[in-house]
Amino acid sequence: MSRSFYKTILDFLAYVLLVIGALTMLIPFVWMISVSLRLPAEQFSRNIIPDPFTLKNYTDLFKDLPNQAFLYLTYNSFKLSLLSVIGQVLTCAMAAFVFAIVKFKGRDFLFALLVATLMIPPQVSLIPDFIIFKYLGLIGTQWPLILPAFWGGAFGTFLLRQYFLTIPRDLVDAARMDGASLFDIFWRVYMPLSKPAVAALSIFVFKDAWNDLLHPLVYLPTDMQQTTLTVGLAFFQQQLQAGGKFTVLMAGAFLSIVPLLIIFFIAQKQFIEGIALSGVKR
Questions:
Q1: pLDDT of residue 277 exceeding 70
Q2: 21-30, 128-137, 145-154: segment of lowest average pLDDT
């Protein structure tokens, strides 16, 4: 048999595995949407297509949660996620620019040390961070969820540095000859050329901040006016299930992931390009 025949067989098997993997991840999502469109009496039905079809669960979501809690939770999640994106993009971009362009003694060692911190789970630093924020009197506020984003991050710095290295160094030399400062080169040359990588990092940071359950649960355990949507849904889970409103809970879960889907599809091209050029897998 020819070599092309074996390649065709391997490609076919690869596509079959990809389809199986896609269906494995898609079925729970489809089931969640299906349950959110059912009547409570049909919530455990095995039918994928709801019969009858209803949007009442989405209206009940705002009625059953006290004091318009769903709106407050959604607003808090958006605010904290956007601030996290701003903080991470700014600090990581500046650090990545220094590690990629500026030459100084010990640069490679410091960068290797920074990348090594990726092996440390974020839960390990939770207790020291909690002690620091408690000493500063910030427990019970949103500041412990905002400030760490402006401290930079190893993953974001690594991703942007890898992208910065693909930009021709001649642009730096040309800007230097025109009298541009280091900050001007960073802000006017590298940042505009790094939109795909910045878009990829923004999606990663927004997703992590939006889905974060542990940190809001630690710093804002019961304050429904300040905590996030993930904590609110977890807090009201038992209440909704006890009332036989599993369908309402699924409606809330679906609405909680809609912003992530919208953001990904809007920035899909830049996201894929940024990951491809930086060579980062996550």
A1: no
A2: 21-30
Write the pLDDT tens digit of every residue in 183-217.
999 999 999 988 888 988 998 899 999 999 889 98
- The domain spans of the chain are 57-278
Please tell me the total number of residues recorded for the chain in this structure.
Answer: 282
| Distance linking the first and last C-alpha atoms of the chain | 38
C-alpha–C-alpha distance, residues 165 and 25, integer Å? 35
| pLDDT surpassing 90 at residue 273 | no
Cα dihedral 108→114→120→122 (10° resolution): -160
Report the CATH superfamily, name and number, of domain 57-278: MetI-like (1.10.3720.10)
Residue type present at position 147: L
Q: What's the average model confidence in pLDDT over 132-148?
A: 91
d(CA 253, CA 232): 11
Give the sign of the dihedral formed by CA 89, CA 92, CA 94, CA 100. negative
Kindly tell me the number of DSSP H helices and DSSP E strands found in the chain.
15, 0
275-282: long-range contacts at Cβ-Cβ below 8 A with a sequence spacing of 24 or more?
A: 275/200, 277/163, 277/166, 277/196, 277/197, 278/159, 278/160, 278/162, 278/163, 278/166, 278/197, 278/200, 279/162, 280/158, 280/159, 280/162, 280/200, 282/155, 282/204
The pLDDT of residue 244:
63
Structure-block tokens of residue 19? 């389809």
Q: What is the pLDDT of residue 241?
A: 61
Query: What is the rounded CA–CA span in Å between residue 61 and residue 75?
Result: 15
